[in-house]
Design brief:
428 residues; alpha+beta; OB fold (Dihydrolipoamide Acetyltransferase, E2P); Chloramphenicol Acetyltransferase; four-stranded antiparallel beta sheet; 9 helices; 29% helix; 23% strand
Length: 428
């Protein structure tokens, strides 16, 4: 029996093999993890769908695999009976053989055309539920062009999504270069070894995802960054005062839970910063929940686990959850679901160093807060020069949604939330 890669979740159809747990000749049980797969910034264990003895391993570490691809073959059970695929018309085969390989930019359009050719064209209405047909009418979708994946050619929601994805891919095809215009030149490939010794390191799947998302944000958002400094002296004293009590509960109290609570309170007062822009519907989505992303620096790259309902949790609960998520992120055990649904992101570089920086907004969010390293500085308080622990902050926001005046008011209230943090919120 062949064990194949199952569906990985919404919008995920492939991944890179990180490690393989079995060898040829090993006996495996059903649901026993057989390998680890990296996908969308997360590493997940893939279980065996049956029990048996490993007869053959079809993949290797570092290989990219897709849904439905064979992973291992098991002996010791009856082989499943699979129907032979229906042969396609000979004329179509001949056409495929005679046609030259398509250029990359032609693939998306041809996939849509092929989908339309292969989709059934019955005289009666397509086989689909009444609710799906109603949705198709409202969206202007011709169901006769959608290939049904269920028994009898029945069309389900996932088929419509796949069809729309192909249409979107075709629509995103680069426009042809006008006559006389010059196309963007390809990036030059330089042989750096001619100048001295070099080492080559392959770009990981995680780094590709980070690069793609950061580029999307940079090219899409009209970003502005607002800077300020916050007096963390009181927060530092509260942390030291209550750290032993938290350690007695088995939790290390850092300044990050304080940051989470202060940011959550400020977001509740300024909901536009807790929103997303729906460019298709031309709507601003104001979220009534506060799920904060925490940027975690790992050996493999930046990961952003989500702390949910921060406004409803105690400082102790937040400290516990932070420790657990940070450890899972560094061990690459965090799941994709634990990095979805964020409403606002916090990037804290204080433990590393540096002062102000310009964090890139984590789409589809509209703002992100960056914190630098705190330092003792001489400041004026009540006419006196005193030493205070000052921490630089940088608020990057999407100017398509948020105006400068709103950002200034948000920053003022955020400073107050930090500097007037209630001691009652720290007590256990």
């Amino acid at each position: 029996m062949d064990v194949k890669l199952p569906k990985l979740g919404e919008g995920s159809d492939s991944g890179v093999v990180v490690g393989i747990f079995v060898n040829v000749g090993d006996t495996v049980a059903k649901d026993q993890p057989i390998l680890e797969l990296e996908n969308e910034k997360a590493v997940a264990s893939i279980p065996s769908t049956a029990a048996g003895v490993v007869e053959k391993i079809h993949v290797k570490a570092g290989e990219k695999v897709g849904v439905g691809q064979r992973l291992i073959t098991l002996a010791g059970g009856a082989a499943p009976v699979t129907a032979a695929p229906a042969p396609k018309p000979a004329a179509k085969k001949a056409a495929v053989k005679a046609a030259p390989a398509p250029e990359p930019e032609e693939v998306a359009e041809e996939e849509v055309e092929e989908s339309a050719e292969e989709a059934p064209h019955p005289v009666a209405a397509p086989v689909a539920s009444p609710s799906l047909r109603r949705m198709a009418r409202e969206l202007g979708i011709d169901l006769t062009k959608v290939h049904g994946s269920e028994a009898g050619g029945r069309i389900v929601t996932s088929d419509v999504r796949a069809y729309l994805a192909k249409l979107a891919k075709a629509a995103a095809k680069p426009a042809p270069v006008a006559a006389g215009a010059t196309a963007k030149p390809a990036a030059p490939q330089i042989d750096f070894s001619q100048f001295g010794p070099i080492l080559k390191k392959p770009v990981t799947q995680l780094r590709k995802v980070i690069a793609r998302r950061m580029s999307e944000s940079w090219n899409t958002v009209a970003r502005v960054t607002q800077f300020d400094d916050i007096d963390f002296t009181q927060l530092g004293e509260l942390r030291k005062k209550y750290a032993p009590a938290y350690e007695a509960k088995g939790v290390k109290l850092t300044l990050t839970p304080f940051v989470l609570k202060a940011v959550a309170a400020t977001l509740k007062a300024h909901p536009i910063f807790n929103s997303s822009l729906d460019e298709v519907a031309n709507e601003i989505i104001l979220k009534e929940y506060v799920h904060l992303g925490i940027a975690v620096d790992t050996d493999q790259g930046l990961m952003v686990p989500i702390i949910r309902d921060v406004d409803k949790k105690s400082l102790l609960d937040l400290a516990k959850e932070l420790e657990q998520l940070a450890a899972k992120a560094r061990d690459r055990k965090i799941t994709a679901d634990e990095m979805k649904g964020g409403t606002f992101t916090i990037s804290n570089q204080g433990a590393i160093g540096g002062a102000h920086f310009t964090p890139i907004i984590n789409l589809p969010e509209v703002a992100i807060l960056g914190l630098g390293r705190g330092a003792m500085k001489a400041v004026v308080r009540d006419g006196q020069i005193v030493a205070r622990l000052m921490t630089p902050i940088a608020l990057s926001y999407d100017h398509r949604v948020i105006d400068g005046g709103s950002a200034a008011r948000f920053t003022v209230d955020l400073v107050k939330a930090f500097e007037n943090f209630s001691e009652d919120a720290v007590k256990i």
